[in-house]
Amino acid sequence: MISRLKIKNFKSLKEIEIYPKALNLLTGLNGMGKSSLIQMLLLLRQSNNNGSLQEKGLLLNGDLVKLGTGKDVFYQSAGENEEVQVEFQTTQKHNFHWHFKYAAESHILPLHNKSDYIQEGAEFSLFTNNFQYLNAEHISPLNLHEKSQLDVVEFKQIGKYGEFAAHYLSEFGLKDKVQYENLRHPKAKSDTLIHNVDAWLGEISPGTRIIVEDIISIDKVRLAYQFETKSGYTNEFKPINVGFGLSHILPILVTLLSATKDKIVLIENPESHIHPKGQSKIGELLFWAALNGIQLFVETHSDHILNGIRVAINRQNSDADKVGLFFFERDIHNDEHFSTIQVPQVDNNGRIDQWPEGFFDEWENNLLELA
Q1: Inter-residue contact 277 to 303 (CB < 8 Å)
Q2: Which residues are bridge partners to 348 per DSSP?
């Protein structure tokens, strides 16, 4: 896991340093720097996969993220002789750092300085297949889904949009079991991945059952849903006829229920298209996953996800120290545009010690307005 992360001169992150936990919620108003932190981690992975990180520099445009040129990512008030810097330490006490020079029109920020590229770096989850990123723009509902032998079968990835989640379930849904007992849903028909996906989907839409069929003749996977009734199940429904919510949450469930120890997972806006009750259940599931040594960075605007986490902590009255809350903001009265981060603390009762202005306080503000 990443135990310390420092970023300097990247977009609105003039200089920030945080100490991530197993589950990290990145919150704050729009445009405050939450996505920038996730993007830096993606740039490191992208540059490493491309082979440029250790010799050439930071690749700004690739499969994971496209940010433009140096002038688009360099902190606007930094001098041209300053550098984009990133450092992190792992729970195994391995330290890594990279310094990149300014290059206004280049798609690569040239490498100026770096830590020794030791074997521990090559084996760290950020740079291996023990990683998953889910972009905010998940795949839209589709009846037929693409397959990828390389991504799914070889690397056990589901794509940054979750586009291979159906293929993953067709390959491993009945073969793989949910490894961790606390992630197995009590209503699941077995401990297999697909039955637990069904059960957790039932928290979003009760009685849901997923159907996946590998259509070899056209090299695609068919996806459909059924819903439990008093006497059995309904006919199959196409994804386009059951709304965006189930299609949006499916890749998140597959990722969390199949994750193994030391996996790093980045998720943007898991709450999209999901009812508040379902958002709260997602929060609980994120917390349970984090207890298994999986590290999650979750960008969210949902107080329901936060409260789901708090409820899960309260129920067992422990492990609050596994959760990090990072509230991004900026001082509009300052001549410079840069992000600062406040770190509210949650205790084992699920209580939070401080509520900065803008930190999930709109519900209370609206109630006061209505009083």
Answers
A1: no
A2: none
Of 361, 303, 356, the closest CA to residue 25 belongs to 303
Helix, strand and coil content of the chain, in percent to the nearest 5, comes to 30, 30, 40
232-233 vs 295-299, strand pairing mode:
unpaired
Gap between the Cα atoms of 321 and 371, Å rounded: 36
153 inside domain: yes
Rounded to whole angstroms, the Cα distance separating 179 from 176 reads 8
Burial 4-20 (b: 16+ CB within 10 A, else e): ebebbbbbbbbebebeb
3-state secondary structure at position 90: strand
Mean pLDDT of the chain: 93
Q: 263, 157 in Cβ contact below 8 A?
A: no
Residue 48 lies in a domain: no
Neighbours of 251 (CB within 10 A): 26
6: Cβ–Cβ under 8 A, 6 or more apart, which residues? 15, 16, 17, 85, 86, 87, 88
User: Is 208 inside any structural domain?
Assistant: yes
In a domain, 63, yes or no: no
Helix (H) or strand (E) holding 243: none
Structural domain of residue 152, as residue ranges?
A: 140-259
- CA angle, 359 then 65 then 4, to 5°: 55
pTM: 0.94
Q: Provide the domain count of the chain.
A: 1
Beta bridge partners of 148: none
191-248 pLDDT, tens digit each? 999 999 999 999 988 999 999 999 999 999 999 999 999 899 999 999 999 878 899 9
What does each C-alpha distance from 222 to 23, 58, 170 come to in angstroms?
Answer: 33, 39, 9
